[in-house]
Amino acid sequence: MTTGMTGMAARSSQAPAARPVPGTLLAALLSIFLFLVAAAPVFAQATRSGGKIGPEAPVTYDNRYEVYGGLNFMNFKAGQDLPKRMNLGGGELAGTYWLTNHIGATADYRFDAGTTPVFPSPGSTNPARELVQMNIGMLGIQYRGPKNHYAAINYHAYGGAASGVFHGPSDFNVGLYSDRVKPIVALGGSIDYNRSKNIAIRLQPDLILEHFGSDTREFFSLSGGVIYRFGTR
Q1: Which of 47, 68, 172, 189 has fewest C-beta within 10 Å?
Q2: In the chain, domain spans
Q3: How far apart are CA 208 and CA 29, in angstroms?
Q4: What value, to the nearest 5°, has the Cα angle with vertex 21 and ends 18 and 23?
């Protein structure tokens, strides 16, 4: 009996699963950037029917304005001590005012929602998972890096606030944060594959830094969509 109780105590005192090492996320983001850098020349070298794939009109990147809309994915942890991460999905809208050929000021809005595993609660109507919603608004700078007629690589740094709705219609203690607004940062880049002078397809990975809990945590985001460029600088 004593041996059994000792074993149970040992198991109950085991530490929770360790958080992923931040370096792992940074390495993943770096790998994606290296892929993007390598991909741009590939687009330029590809041939079809004796000609290069890409827009017919010259892409001059002399536009003053740029709007972006796409689908967004982000992983997240919706409670300080929850053992598992969750996946959020939604949309992203952004507008950029290009100050020069390389530097633009950007406003970015994202909405994401998803369900997360939670601690069991007898009173919860859904003890296994709860709905989480996020509204994120950020401002920042976008830098246009390597570019040619076929594609461009951009880098950006955005900062702002994220409003999280964690409990929804039920308010049970299942390990979620309370509804709150906290600072958030997105560091990343994108590759824009030109379909015409004014339209491009964008793939955009981000490293997300947030402070909903007692410390800053790192997560990964990925979005893809369409860019429309207009106006002349």
Answers
A1: 47
A2: 20-230
A3: 11
A4: 180
State how far the Cα of 201 lies from the Cα of 11, in Å rounded to an integer. Answer: 51
pLDDT at 233: 84
Task: Show the tokens assigned to 63.
Answer: 């536009």
Task: Give the model's confidence band at 58: pLDDT under 50 very low, under 70 low, under 90 confident, else very high.
Answer: confident
pLDDT at 211 over 90: yes
DSSP 3-state of 85: coil
Q: Closest by alpha carbon to 91, among 189, 204, 223, 193?
A: 223
Residue 111's nearest CA partner among 65, 69, 158 is 69
Q: Are strands 199-210 and 129-147 parallel, antiparallel or unpaired?
A: unpaired
Report the predicted TM-score, pTM, of the whole model to 2 decimal places: 0.75
- Reading the block at residue 111, the tokens are 């909405």
Give the pLDDT score at 96: 98
CA triple 175-220-64, angle to 5 deg: 130
- The CATH number corresponding to 20-230 among 3.30.70.120, 2.60.120.260, 1.10.3720.10, 2.40.160.20 equals 2.40.160.20
Do 195 and 101 meet the contact criterion of CB atoms below 8 Å apart? no
Is the model more confident about 149 or about 123? 149
